[in-house]
Amino acid sequence: GASSGYLIGVGSYDMTGPAADVTMMGYANLNQITAGIHFRLRARAFIVAESENGARFAFVNLDAGMASQLVTIKVLERLNHRYGDLYNEDNLAISGTHTHAGPGGYLQYALYAAASLGFVPQSFDAIVNAIALSIVQAHNNLKPGSIFINQGDVENAGINRSPSAYLFNPAEERARYPKDVDTQMTLLKFIDEQRGKSIGSFNWFATHGTSMSRDNLLISGDNKGAAARFFEDWFASTQANSSSNSNVSKASGLLEKATGGKECSKTTSQGFKVRKSDGSQFVGAFCQSNVGDVTPNVLGAFCTDSGKPCDFNHSSCHGDTKLCVARGPGYPDEVKSTKIIGERQFQKAADLFASATEELTGKIDFRHVYLNFTDLDVALDGNKIVKPCPAAVGPGFAAGTTDGPGLTGFQQGDLEIAEKWRKIRDLIKKPSQYQEDCQKPKAVLLSTGEMFDPYAWAPTILPIQILRLGKLIILSVPGENSNKLLGCTPVIAKQSLKLSASTEFTTMAGRRLREAVKETLISNGNGEFDNETVIVIAGLTNTYSQYIATFEEYQQQRYEAASTIYGPHTLSTYIQEFKKLAVALVKGDKVAEGPSPPDLSAVQLKLLGGPYGDIPPPGKNFGDMKDDIKSSGPFKKGDKLIASFWSANPRYDLLTEGTFAVVEMLQEKRWIPAYDDDDFSLVFKYNLDNTTFKGLATIEWEVPDDARSGIYRIRHFGSARKTQDSPIIYFTGASSSFTVS
């Protein structure tokens, strides 16, 4: 077909952070500390350009709770070394999927750092490195190509978790929408013109990354990461040759004993990966949208004591929020729920991908501005001028959500704060009278925008960004703010912290923003834009600044409203500023960049120590078996096999683009990797043995339905320092082999 004239490229890189000792980012549960990997986290990027020297932008989707200002700053420094200012803050968007099962420690504001024992350089570097390298890969892959767009509804992958707040919106506005969540998925399909084949696909759809609960300790991309893994594997299987090795010999004489631990090199495990990431791989990304009040736990929220539905207005049970917990479709199995919600998104994406026929053509353009949020004047209807407030959270924030209940003594919808908490608050920082008046009806639980000790607790300078790709408009919103809060004060730290992270624009807030931007484009665009213009919100992008509820939802002060940190007019502020940016985009005007955000990397507190050296038990080597597979089989589909190896802390080396766990299959007398730690069926866990206190790697494989019959074994890779100063050694070992029927 005729070329749309775009250059397109995609890339993807492993961003899995420390699989031990680091608090996860999302629920702000201080006991939720990484202890293994369910499947790996990736950064997935696409770049579109009008020509070699024409306009371009890069969009990166991260398997992370959210993007971070400091991450963006450091990524741009790296890209600048390579490409000058070809990629800059104007044309780079970095968006998080909002999984709550990734390592924390990469956000620069104190509120969010509190829950991860401060700043964790290893966690931060893994993310920065993966974003930069995914962009490098996409840049190196730029080729003439075409882009197709398709939209459709995803069934039953999200419900509203604050339906009572949604009902505060005007009845005539609600009557225009069939549901209290947005079910639409918008998908792009990238086709390489020369080869005539698809190289990747990105889609946007709103549902929280909270299928895995606040008690999960395994690194996971949650439902969106799972959907991406299923989509990429599905695409690879449609491309693979149909020749199957069904003649694998089944002679039992080939069973072997465990190998014992042996030393290997830093890169050995990379050769055992099932999926190679050399830049030629198909990239399928599932991006986040206006997910504020959308939960993937679609069965609803129930009281854990009685099994009855929770209180509608407060999501509590006899006044206790801790007892009110949402259920996913695989309840009570969170891994099953993750898989089901992932599959629902994947299946819709595969349908839209297969049926996409509408090609995008037209200009590539972008606008970006930094806003000093609390200095803005916002004109409301009737010309009343208001200002957003300094950042603050209310008591409903401490209550958490049904996805991750918070502190006892708080409920969603609380408009007052108990005397004891008020005293604690005033010890930390008493809010100004201006702040208390400004935030009403929110009671100020923590006035984060007025807290600067040991450094800023919340951002005041926020970026907003518009990307244009023909008739597709992407709005990058810094929504969200996770509740990392209360870990900073010893008094509160004694309570077990169970605050869940909030999520950006609520459903109705997102609808209002999309509509306002669309109207602005149409009325200023001289016929360039019309009702066919597609507007998507890319959530959790570039910085993290908590929720945005509508003015009406704000009145009830449920979790999303209590986390709308800049007060009741937050949404009006965003709409006003996005409209200005849209006008500049349409008219081709430059925009003043605004004040730069601070780089707080120099003042970050780093409280996580170690690891300080690991040695195996006397007479054992790293990689030796502790507990071998219980029998040589035959095992059948659905059976779970477990092997444990003497190992060391996985923080010595993240084995980036490698693997801690492999299932190998015997084929023509050679062992070939069949599954690795990026597979849904294979889990790597790390803990200390409870008698020797030595490191143990436990690898669990649930034989999947697509496993072929034959002979298999389980292999582990790891790394260690025997003392703090000795060099890192790498090791591997394999279990006895077994048969699968």
From TrEMBL:
Sequence ranges assigned to domain Neutral/alkaline non-lysosomal ceramidase C-terminal in this UniProt record: 578-740
Keyword terms: Endoplasmic reticulum, Glycoprotein, Golgi apparatus, Hydrolase, Lipid metabolism, Metal-binding, Secreted, Signal, Sphingolipid metabolism, Zinc
InterPro entries linked: Ceramidase_alk, NCDase_C_sf, NEUT/ALK_ceramidase_C, NEUT/ALK_ceramidase_N
Ranges for domain Neutral/alkaline non-lysosomal ceramidase N-terminal: 6-481, 500-576
Reactions performed catalytically: an N-acylsphing-4-enine + H2O = sphing-4-enine + a fatty acid
Cofactor(s) of this protein: Zn(2+)
Sample GO molecular function, one term: N-acylsphingosine amidohydrolase activity
UniProt entry tagged with the keyword Hydrolase: yes
Cofactor binding: number and manner: Binds 1 zinc ion per subunit.
Principal EC category: hydrolase
GO BP terms: cellular response to oxidative stress; ceramide catabolic process; long-chain fatty acid biosynthetic process; sphingosine biosynthetic process
Binding site for Zn(2+): 98, 208, 504, 547
Similarity field: Belongs to the neutral ceramidase family.
Name of this chain's protein: Neutral ceramidase
